[in-house]
Design a protein that fits this description.
The complex is a heterodimer of chains A (251) and B (331). Chain A is an alpha/beta fold. Helices cover 33% and strands 29% of the residues of chain A. Chain A has helices spanning 42-49, 66-72, 88-94, 107-119, 135-148, 165-180, 192-198, 216-219, 222-229, and strands at residues 4-13, 16-26, 31-35, 56-59, 73-76, 153-157, 184-188, 201-206, 209-214, 231-238, 241-249. In chain A, strand 8 (201-206) and strand 9 form a beta hairpin. Chain B has 331 residues and is mainly α. Chain B contains 15 helices and no strands. Chain B has helices at residues 3-25, 33-42, 47-81, 93-107, 109-112, 116-136, 142-165, 170-180, 189-207, 210-216, 220-225, 230-252, 258-266, 274-299, 307-330. The two termini of chain B are 36 Å apart. The relative contact order of chain B is 0.16. The mean pLDDT of chain B is 89. Classes of the chains: A alpha/beta (251), B mainly alpha (331).
């Protein structure tokens, strides 16, 4: 059973197609990296898939009733907004909202929130006001919030941007762990090395279209990097897994 | 209720109860405490019963209701807009209610018919909220709502000034100006019964917002993806605010700063959670307005100091203090 099926997804803003005719399926056990240059349509693709934008085409997720969708898919937007100085644990507990019938969290809700705090190494700062944390720490709080939602599909828009290297790795390992456990994760990334090392599959967008969809080795070819990203990259398959280092801009 | 919340709600509740009792016991008639309460409870035809039941009770009840309304609507508005500078008047309802009232005074409707003024003010509030909803559109985020609110406020303000400009004589003009300052003096139980049903509807609408406002802490996108219907939330917010603020302005005039300052002051005490702030703010607003209404009777009893003037005088410096605190934190 696929957790997300998009077919012919198109979003137009002011007569310009932001994404055009995108079809893709995300199944259980997949950690899908969504890559593409700025403005390629990564965020738009994910927001339209969630039904947050008007679109044409089909999205299995957007077709669900809103409350059910929230139990099916979690979403971490790119804008890391935390409006009030609420405690870290209160923010993470918000992720349990779609599952809570009353205002009071059940033991299961607490356990899920606790596990999410631990996964993002936030247990020590649980009582601190989330707004007083650093940008990277806030990102981890918001990732933990999405993890606490405990959905079959997790979608995150540039979750590791601004994180220190250790937490970038921890976050990607957490996502990979979710995928190994049979869930699906769709993340947009700019770090090609992280994408190549942890993603089971990569979807590359370029100029509003889906350019390539396959394993990292299939997608991240020198030709595509040149054509879509306008860069050259150094690539080696090492004992530590594949390593990508962008080198030069092709002008 | 959790322990932390109880530690905030209980003292606030006690303060409201004490100030409500205080409001019933303070006045120029100089009745003793025992006599006042006996007259209030037993009633009868004596002057004490008349003062208690027809003058002080409605005044205390209105302060309680309007204060709670302003506090609740202020907390809801700040939570929705995720902005501590938001206040209930932002959507233009108080401005348009005031315009309705001013027209009632100008045309003589207010003098001809006891409820002419509050009913015209309610009509103004209804027109204002309809216009805001039409301008903001069925979809759209918080920004369109703010812009629509500013547009309606500006229009109502301009028309109010026009009415003042065209007032036939200085007495009419001064009556308008004094009404606009906001007061609870000489209100009757009729005013209470007029405002109460609308306020009950408004409280019911605003009271449902807690969950959605909590989710909105993370932005509109995240909240929607967590299953919150943004359109319904906005509709409840606007209609609820229109009900409580429209009714409040209709019976008491424009009373500023309560809806702005109270949520801001109480936010740190409830862990900044918008859902908890709603009811804490309602109690806080009631306490502030009851205290202010007692103060106008004690400070300058013979000069009829207006309630709205006092809340602004107290509110402005309090706000200044908050700004300074914020600036210290930012650096």
């Amino acid at each position: 059973m696929s957790l997300l099926t998009l077919s012919g997804l198109t979003v137009s803003l002011r007569g310009r197609d932001v994404i055009r005719d995108i079809s893709l399926t995300v199944g259980p056990g997949e950690l899908v990296g969504l890559i593409g240059p700025n403005g390629a349509g990564k965020t738009t693709l994910m927001r339209a898939a969630l039904g947050l934008l008007p679109f044409t085409g089909e999205s299995s997720l957007a077709a669900l009733p809103q409350a059910e969708r929230a139990r099916h898919a979690a979403w971490m937007p790119q804008a890391r907004e935390i409006a009030w100085p609420v405690s870290v644990e209160d923010v993470v507990m918000l992720g349990r909202m779609p599952h809570m019938a009353t205002r009071h969290p059940s033991p299961q809700d607490r356990a899920q929130a606790e596990a999410a705090l631990a996964a993002m190494e936030l247990t020590d700062m649980r009582h601190r006001a989330a707004t007083r944390l650093s940008g990277g720490e806030q990102a981890r709080v918001l990732i933990a919030r999405a993890l606490a939602q405990d959905t079959a599909l997790l979608m995150a828009d540039e979750p590791v941007a601004g994180l220190d290297p250790a937490h970038q790795i921890t976050t990607m390992q957490t996502f990979a762990g979710l995928a190994r456990g049979g869930k699906s994760v769709l993340v947009s990334l700019h770090d090609l090395s992280l994408a190549a090392r942890y993603c089971t599959r990569i979807v590359m967008l370029g100029e509003a279209r889906l350019v390539a969809d396959g394993t990292p080795a299939e997608v991240l070819t020198p030709e595509r990097l040149a054509q879509v990203f306008h860069i050259t990259a150094w690539y080696r398959d090492t004992d530590h897994g594949p390593i990508y280092q962008p080198l030069e801009v092709i002008r | 209720m959790s322990g932390a919340l109880a530690r905030v709600m209980l003292p606030l509740g006690l303060a409201v109860a004490a100030l409500f009792a205080g409001s019933l016991l303070v006045g120029p008639a100089g009745l003793g405490i025992g006599d006042s309460l006996a007259a209030l409870l037993r009633g009868g035809d004596g002057p004490a019963a008349l003062i208690m039941r027809e003058i002080r009770l409605p005044r205390a009840l209105l302060a309680l209701m309007i204060g709670a309304s302003l506090g609740l609507a202020g907390a809801a508005m700040q939570g929705y807009l995720r902005n501590p500078l938001a206040e209930p008047g932002l959507i233009g309802v108080s401005g348009s209610a005031a315009l309705g009232a001013v027209i009632a005074i100008h045309t003589g409707l207010a003098g001809a018919f006891a409820l002419g003024l509050p009913l015209m003010a309610l009509a103004g509030a209804l027109a204002g909220v309809t216009l805001v909803m039409l301008l903001a559109g069925p979809r759209g985020g918080s920004l369109t709502l703010i812009l629509a609110g500013i547009a309606v406020s500006a229009l109502a303000g301009a028309l109010t000034t026009l009415v003042l400009n065209l007032s036939p004589n200085p007495f009419a003009a001064s009556e308008i100006v004094f009404w606009m300052m906001g007061s609870l003096a000489d209100r009757s139980m009729t005013h209470v019964w007029l405002a109460l049903p609308l306020m009950a509807v408004g409280f019911a609408l605003l009271g449902t917002l807690g969950r959605g406002l909590d989710a909105l802490t993370l932005g509109e996108d995240a909240a929607e993806a967590m299953g919150l219907g943004m359109r319904r939330l906005r509709l409840s917010l606007v209609l609820g605010t229109a009900c409580v603020v429209g009714a409040g302005t209709a019976v008491a005039g424009a009373i500023g700063f309560v809806g702005l300052v109270v949520p801001h002051l109480l936010r740190p005490m409830v862990g900044a959670r918008p859902s908890r702030l709603l009811w804490a703010s309602a109690l806080g607003g009631a306490a502030m307005l009851l205290a202010a209404d007692i103060a106008v009777r004690l400070v300058l009893p013979e000069r009829d100091l207006k309630l709205g003037v006092l809340t602004a005088l107290v509110g402005a410096p309090l706000f200044l203090h908050l700004i300074l605190k914020l600036r210290r934190e930012r650096i």
